Amino acid sequence: MPTLEAVGLSRRYGPRSAVEGLSFVAEQGDIVGLLGPNGAGKTTTIRLLTTILRPTAGSFTVAGIPDREPARIRARIGVLPESAGYPGRQSGAAYLRYAARLFGRSRSESAMAARRLLDEVGLGDRAGALISTYSRGMKQRLGIARALINDPAVVFLDEPTLGLDPAGQREVLSTVALIAGERGATVVLSTHTLAEVEQVCSSLLILDRGRLRAAGTVAEVKAAVGAASLNDAFLSLTERSDR
Ligand SMILES: Nc1ncnc2c1ncn2[C@@H]1O[C@H](COP(=O)(O)OP(=O)(O)OP(=O)(O)O)[C@@H](O)[C@H]1O
Q1: Of all protein residues, whose CA lies closest to atom 8 belonging to ligand 1?
Q2: CB 81 within 8 A of CB 158
Q3: Which of 23, 100, 163, 201 sits CB 3.0–4.6 Å from 197 for a disulfide?
Q4: What are the record keywords, sorted (predicted)?
Q5: Where are the beta strands (DSSP E) in the chain?
Q6: Is 172 within the bounds of a domain?
Q7: Cα–Cα dist 60/47, whole Å
């Protein structure tokens, strides 16, 4: 059974179609890159799949749970939103303990979960430091740890490397690879950085103006349009004269 399956998923805003007829499947351990120019529908797709927005047509399942049961889906997913904010005056450990308590864990379970997750994202040695002293990359990894607090089947990361320096990008991407490889979660990663897609994604979805233009592995997408690089493939699939 796929962990994530969308069939004809669509969302309109009045007359404007933000996502139109999106269909795809993803399996356990897949890292799916969600690509597309500005306004292509990436954030709308993530909002639909995380049950923040209702589809105007089509359907999807997460870990076999249909989209008409959003509360059950929310219990099985983790999300790092595009511009997550953090309480600067809390430590990373306190922030995660609080998040675990919100999921109904006991005080001692929450403390253990916070410690384990901080180690997992490479923040174990900064657990007690205030979040205001974390670098941007460290905050992103804390946000990823927060998204893992309920052991999700699917993790959605909206532009997790935006604004990070190369070392910060590398740390976030190796964390993403661990989530998929060791936890076996499915990761959906939206990004504008094609190099990182080539590095970590097992498959990709290229959207443009709400429609799926290509899907498959990097090699399959390049072959489909006869492009030498992912960059060339992306441009030929999304190029238009009105820019
Ligand atoms: N609340 C809204 N009301 C009306 N139109 C919207 C709304 N949210 C998004 N749209 C429109 O839907 C389309 C898709 O937007 P979306 O934010 O999903 O794209 P995106 O691929 O995430 O873009 P970016 O790369 O710039 O973040 C755009 O044309 C956008 O203007």
Answers
A1: 44
A2: yes
A3: 201
A4: ATP-binding, Nucleotide-binding, Transport
A5: 4-13, 16-26, 31-35, 57-62, 65-66, 77-80, 154-158, 186-190, 203-208, 211-216
A6: yes
A7: 12
* Nearest protein Cα to ligand 1, atom 2: 13
Residue 84 is encoded by which pair of tokens? 């997550």
User: In angstroms, what CA-CA distances link 43 with 6, 14, 38, 188?
Assistant: 15, 17, 10, 11
Ligand 1 atom closest to Cα of 47? 18
Report if residue 101 sits inside a domain: no
Q: How many domains does the chain have?
A: 1
Give nearest CA residue, ligand 1 atom 31. 39
Q: Is residue 52 in some structural domain?
A: yes
Centre of ligand 1 to C-alpha 85, Å, is: 21
Range of the domain at 42: 4-85+154-238
- Return the best residue to mutate from 35, 42, 56, 209 for the ligand 1 pocket (most ligand atoms within 8 A of CB): 42
**Which atom of ligand 1 is nearest to 43's Cα?**
22
Judge whether 182 lies within some domain. yes
Output the tens digit of pLDDT for each of the chain's 243 residues: 889 999 999 999 999 999 999 999 999 999 999 999 999 999 999 999 999 999 999 999 999 999 999 999 999 999 998 877 888 899 999 999 999 999 899 999 999 999 999 999 999 999 999 999 999 889 999 999 999 999 999 999 999 988 888 888 898 899 999 999 999 999 999 999 898 889 899 999 999 999 999 999 999 999 999 999 999 999 999 976 455
